[in-house]
């Protein structure tokens, strides 16, 4: 669900660029959640701290519009 909401937040082009960057950067090794969120922010050129705080670290599932 987090990935789908990120896709909606960023749009397809940027979202898939984030996925490509992560798979290229962390190929054959483990990436942490922090690695993924940092890559998403870097590739998108946006501060996604609020998005990830809501969707990853909030105790309850956020409402879906």
TrEMBL record:
Q: Where on the tree of life does the source sit, at the highest rank?
A: Bacteria
This chain's protein is named: Peptidase M1 membrane alanine aminopeptidase domain-containing protein
């Amino acid at each position: 669900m987090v990935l789908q909401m990120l896709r909606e937040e960023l749009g397809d082009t940027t979202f898939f660029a984030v996925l490509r960057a992560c798979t290229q950067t962390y190929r054959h090794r483990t990436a942490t959640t922090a690695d993924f969120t940092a890559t998403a922010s870097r590739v998108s050129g946006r501060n996604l701290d609020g998005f990830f705080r809501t969707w990853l670290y909030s105790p309850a599932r956020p409402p879906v519009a």
